[in-house]
Amino acid sequence: MDGKKLSARHLADLRKSGLTEETIRISQAFTESDPVRIAVMLRWCDEATGEPRPAKGLGSCLVFPFLNVAGDALNYYRIKPDKPRVSPTGRPFKYESPYKTPNHVYLTPRAREYAKDASKPLIFTEGEKKALAADQAKYACVGSVGVWGWVRTETESDTGTESKLNADLDPFAWEGRRVYIAYDSDIVANPSSRHAEWRLAVALMELKACVRIIRLPQKIGAPKVGMDDYLASHGPDALGRLIENSAPPTRVLPGFANSVQMLGEKPGEFVDIPRSSDEMALELVGRSGGWPRLVSGALVIPDEKEGTAPIDDYNELFAFMGATFNESGLSGVRWDRGPKHVNRQEFYSHLVKSCERFDRSDSVPHVPAIPGILYTQQIEATKGSPKTLATFLDFFKPATDEDKTLLIAAMLTPLWGGPPGKRPAFLFEATEDDTASGRGVGKTTVAQKIAAIYGGAFDIDASEPFHRTRTRLLTPDAMSKRILLMDNVKTFRLSSADLESLVTAPNVNGHRMYKGQAAIPNYCTLFITLNGASLSKDFAQRVIPVQLKRGDMKEDWEATVDEFLLKNKTALIADLMNVLNRTPTKLSKVSRWGAWESGVLGKVKDAEKALKVIDSRTMRMDADKEDADRIREMFRSIVDKYDSLDGEDADKGRYLLASSAVTRLVELALGVNTTAAGASAQIKSLGMPEFRKSDRNGGRFWLWTGSKLNGKQSSLKKVTYNTESDKPTWDVKHANDHSDKEKKDDSEGV
Predict the structure, then answer these.
(1) Residue 527 host element (H or E)
(2) Which residues contact 243 (CB under 8 A, 6 or more apart)?
(3) Which of 156, 302, 583, 640 is surrounded by the most beta carbons within 10 Å?
(4) H-type alpha helices, 299-343
(5) What pLDDT, on a 0 to 100 scale, did the predictor assign at position 420?
(6) So what's the pLDDT on residue 441?
(7) How high is the mean pLDDT in each 10-residue block of the chain (750 residues)?
């Protein structure tokens, strides 16, 4: 074949298997991009004419040429396409072999060199790269095309089916040679592969080779490990230790058993030997589709209704195993008793310690997936236009196109797998000109129907002490809820440090019943329904306002929505996943919600326009700004009415306010009853530039500096609120040069 160079992609592939430049060179591997040449190597020919059928769909291919013991080319190639074919079940064909051509085995340089020297050990493994990795580690190695690739012919004998080694291995000396079979680590979960391993061992033992089995270490839930993976991660010395600890070949029993069989001393005799808990756990999990798993400290198995069901003891475990390994209507579980055999309770306890662990389970995926969550339902994102989502949106009445964008963002946010504590709250409200002040516009229904996509909402009662809310949030049922719903809030002024932390804190901390203090990652999204919201500045910045308009809803509207969700929930989730898989629009500015804006909002049409709407509505809801303006206006009116000293207005003067004056000012401006300490804290929290604390010889005051003073000199005046007379009144007078002199070292700004 012409062209023996390797593409950068294929060179990286070989290096990923830990192969050095020298090993790659002597392998003679190369890249082939010509579809006709690829077809010739794969024997893809037109049966009528014999002409090659160009392999156009495979793209460039990494090609491994096979050589015989003498180092001569066999005109046999194994090919790894860049664009592999896919089976009807969706499984890609990672490698291609020549069509209707008997298999050959891949002989590494050391295998060819030591073929006739039985004193040199030999390793059998799967595939070319794995064999080359072993050869690089100074072990002669044979790579078979799959676990059965070593077979030449199958013949019937008086004792049953026999297997003979591939003809490529005829020149090898076998008697007394130490041969190690090291297939991929997932072999323990595949009885067919175990059978192929046993048959290879028998064929070699019949040639009087000394055969041992190497088990590459495997962890439950981790990717399988091949020879190249193991050597790249652990090195040749570790492989040497595995060789030292290799075991005699064994054959598996039907079904699932805690014993395997090895050859006895007499011909045809087999002896049962116990299996380790590790190996049995790997087989059980591998053959059952990954079950059981450990969720919140409990073993669980799949359940059609609930997603998962706990197995509380070994009786329930073995009932599950019996159903999994049922053969011909009989239990496929064989469990021998004996002092060296693992008993049922020991196996159950081992699974609790070794199975793949998850913090919780969920039937709906996240995009991207969140580590530590077991997703019990596999949903593939739709491609093209999300039609089910469009139909679902038609049920609701967003006030504007921008509100439609925000409504979609509200639906997407619980599905988003971004960092904890990085999801804004959503506030559903009516338009400001709604004729019924928002009653009956559908705020609650919208929030509830979105929550229904994700298994319902966790209800937050605004009147409940927050430590109790946290305790409820840490119960198993609540931990599975993605949406927290604070419905029909009665107060127009919403401010709570606890509620704000529930939006932005990375963890939800509290007391878990019967467990003590606990914490879970905060992947929740808070929904609030409220009209005419007035929020603290901090909370307003945590909220995305979504406005709804009034529409003509039929009497059966809610039932129609419920029926739609019942029939189309999976398709709707698939559409939402489709949206989250889009490339985000780059927004003109980034807020505290940068991760969410990129991961969610930026995936929706007209995100930039929606961002401007959020900004304008956040300013409108900012109660802190409103409170500050009220206090300013109240103080200006007090000065206008009671300052008769020089005719200046408040914005051009300097005024000292005693605690009594500050307290009354806040009460009048905000319509509340408060204390001196409460009023002082309120002034400080609003961050008004006109006010700062000012310690004087005569006590602690607040200093007002008018916004129009612009550095000009102005006489200092003192404002008090006199409650000692029958009729409390304001008093404004010039400050005293001594008692009202400022202590410069103690002055404090807001």
Answers:
(1) strand 525-529
(2) 121, 180, 212, 214
(3) 302
(4) 314-324
(5) 94
(6) 77
(7) 79 97 96 95 86 89 97 96 92 94 96 97 98 98 95 57 86 98 95 94 96 96 94 97 96 91 87 94 93 92 87 94 74 88 96 93 93 91 90 94 96 97 93 73 91 94 83 83 85 62 86 75 92 67 89 83 95 96 90 92 94 83 75 90 82 90 91 87 83 83 86 83 83 76 51
pLDDT score, position 292: 96
Phi, psi of 483 (to 5 degrees): -120, 130
Query: Does residue 368 have a cis peptide bond before it, meaning omega lies within 30 degrees of 0?
Result: yes
Beta carbons within 8 Å of 585's beta carbon, 6+ residues apart:
602, 603, 607, 608
What are the Cα distances from residue 356, in Å, to 9, 61, 216, 294, 477?
34, 36, 19, 6, 22
Cα-Cα-Cα-Cα torsion 463, 467, 470, 472, nearest 10 degrees, comes to -70
Task: Give the model's pLDDT for residue 365.
Answer: 95
- Over the range 124-159, which residues count as b (16 or more CB within 10 Å of their CB) and which as e? bbbbbbbbbbbbbbebbbbbbbebbbbbbeeeeeee
Torsion of CA 569, 575, 578, 582, to 10 degrees: -130
Closest among 194, 185, 192, 193 to 219, alpha carbons compared: 185
- CA nearest to 310, candidates 296, 331, 289, 323: 296
User: In 10 A of CB 229, how many CB atoms?
Assistant: 20
CA distance 651 to 669: 17
The rounded distance, in Å, linking the Cα atoms of 492 and 191 is 67
Cα gap 621→644, rounded to integer Å: 37
Could you tell me the residue ranges of all domains in the chain?
Answer: 1-101, 108-249, 283-358, 387-621, 623-746
Phi and psi for 147 in degrees, rounded to 5? -70, -15
Q: What is the dihedral of CA 709, 710, 711, 712, to 10 degrees?
A: -50
Asked: is 1-101 a CATH 3.30.420.10 domain? The reply is no
Query: Residue 560 to residues 388, 399, 444, 549, 630: CA-CA distances in angstroms?
Result: 15, 22, 16, 20, 47
Domain 108-249 has CATH 3.40.1360.10: yes
Residue 74 corresponds to which amino acid? Answer: L
Q: What's residue 331's pLDDT?
A: 59
- The pLDDT, as a whole number, for residue 158 is 42
In a 3-state reduction of DSSP, which class is residue 625?
helix
Please list, in sequence order, all residues whose beta carbon lies within 8 angstroms of the beta carbon of residue 218, skipping any fewer than 6 positions away: 185, 186, 188, 224, 225, 282
The reported pTM is 0.72
Report how far Cα 93 is from the mean position of its chain's Cα atoms: 28
pLDDT tens figures, 100-154: 999 999 999 999 999 999 999 999 999 999 999 999 999 999 999 999 999 986 5
| Distances 434 to 438, 440, 532, 701 between C-alpha atoms, Å | 6, 10, 11, 45
Q: Reply yes or no: is the peptide bond before residue 84 cis, omega within 30 of 0.
A: no
**Per CATH, domain 387-621 is 3.40.50.300:** yes
Number of residues that make up the chain: 750
Tokens of 14: 């070989």
Classify burial at 696, counting beta carbons within 10 Å of its beta carbon; exposed 0-12, middle 13-18, buried 19 or more. buried
